[in-house]
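CORE FACILITY INTAKE
Project code: CF-77B
Contact: R.S. (postdoc)
Sample description: multi-component assembly, two entities in total
Requested service: structural model of the whole complex
Turnaround: standard
Below are the sequence entries exactly as provided by the requester. Do not edit them.
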Amino acid sequence: MIYQGKQKIWADYQKEIPDDHWFYVRSCIRQNFFPASEVTMLKIFREMLGKDMYETPHHTTCGGIAYHNECIPQETQMAIIARQFALMTEAGYENYTCSCITSFGLYCETIETWHEMPEVLERTRENLWKACRREFNIPKYLAHTSDLVFKFRKEIGALAKYRLVNKDTGEPLRVVEHIGCHYAKMFPSKGVGGAEYPYVLVGMAEEWGGNVIDYPERRHCCGFGFRQYLVRANRGYSVSNTHKKFESMEPFHPDFIVTNCPGCPYFLDRWQYVIAEQTGKTYGGNGQGIPVLTYEEMAGLVLGLDPWDIGMQVHQIAVEPLLDKIGIEYDESKKYEGTGGKPLPEPEFPAAIRCC
Amino acid sequence: MAKDNVVVIGGGPCGIEVSRNLRDMGYTPILLEQQSELGGHLRQWDRLFPEGVDARKVLKELTSDLRGVKWFTDATIDSIKKSRKGYTVNVDSGMTFESKAVILTTGFKLFPAEKKEEYGYNIYERVITNADLEEYFRTRKDSRIQDPKTIGFVHCVGSRDEKACNRQCSKVCCATAVKQASEIKELFPEATVYCFYMDLRMFGRSYEDMYLNAQKKYGVRFIRGRVSEVSEDIDGKLFVKAEDTLLGKPMKMKMDLLVLMTGIIPGESTAQYSEMLGIERGEDGFFAPKDTILEPCRTKDAGLFIAGTCTGPKTLPETLSEARATAIQVHNFLSK
């Protein structure tokens, strides 16, 4: 692989990302699957980097899941997005950032549609006014929150307590980066690094000491694929997609996977257990799986935040081997201790894959 | 008595041939080439389809007798000014030429393969272009080509591709791919060679025979379908995904070498001359002639002519024929 070739492509796909003052919207899925990731993101930006991240309890779903499953028409979905933008406008912001890749793709698609077809924009304005008497401006800047972490990767690196390095060997950790399909595959120019060789997660991992693996099925879907999973009869496709990726990355012996999409960490994490049940095969060492992190978790770990505060205990695949490799300190007895010391229910541990 | 000067801009096969023909008619052609040698893309080629004629011999023949042609290399045009008497052509070296007629034979450039990012040119070591392979055939030197066992050719790279902003067919790539696939099979008889095509445009005389020969004699396997993406496996081999549209099945295979058949796109100077001289261009970016059927070498400006691949993809014989036709058109214009 010719690294300079990638660098040239990365240079071609730069994206303007403002420094501060963001209207922040959460992800429906992530709040359920990995709720601490968004909290970690806000903590890093507000408390550690001193940035203005505004959020409102009035925002809703972007309509993405329903739209991509053809449960709602595009007109409805655009009205939902218009309402989100109206909230941003009312709050006095013009930089919009979202935690969800599905949302990000949909915002890009909607803004592009409005740009290409101004009559659709006018109809959306009318629909929103009729529905809730709101008006909106289109954001001046739109970014996914991984874009923001990417932008401030050096600042985060400067504050880091740990590096993505094996403490025993001194070697960089081998990192698989997995980008959500809707991040740049639809609009390559909207993603940092483009669609074919996205740089957004590579930039973070490399800045913090890791080495990124380029494996053959790198571009393949994680397995979520909306209807691959949401239609129960299709779930075999979902698992087989994920299986294909793990078979492809296996020879490279990754230390962990990092993702920037709501569905990807969930499916790459949970399906490892299902694959182990179905085939008896595990992809990490010692009968364990390969840990799968969100980018906020990766940032939180290098910054030295308590692994249990950033939600590492809600992963199917045990993260302790990764923490040990890096040398991150943690208290095993507090793994299932919730906010205020309240005990969390402990999961059952499967036999097919070692999860502790 | 010597007739008029005629300035010819572009010293590829078309510019050379039009100059030779004008010289034979008694004119003094002034041939200006911005590169350091005459010959254009032909200098990089090894053999020519369909019979496999040696490109060097063709170029040598073309340039063997340039007596009476005033030719200059490393000559970049600074400006061309039109006056009542004709044109004043200023070259960056300080030379100035007056001429009643100017012929642009500025040629083409190959589509930059790295723009099709999914194919990984300049990212993956064993992805090369048709031009790289031709260079290898000429020199037998390329560290990327080490006894390949499985070789793929991807047709239409940057041609007939809306995403690449090139809708046009490049005309010569199908025949070049079949030629190169056969040639590489000659060099590496044990290799399995695949051609991934949309449709095979074997329009010229003997092209169909070349295609049949590739199948029967060399066993080249033709797969109708485009390659969707390329990546690299842990052993450095290429991992190629494609679709066989005749079988209706996706396929993926490991390859030792992948050759991208980059197409013909307008040369960088086309836009500059268009602006400098007010020559119209088509949607595809090539010069638009005054009349595509009756006057393909003329522009709206009577003394300004265009010939060769600056007006669209052409084979070498077509280019040379057009050069000769243009010389006659210029003569007719100057004789009035």
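Facility notes:
- The interface with chain B takes residues 1-2, 4-6, 8-9, 194-197, 214-219, 251-252 of chain A (CB under 8 Å).
- Chain A has a mean pLDDT of 95.
Invoice: internal transfer
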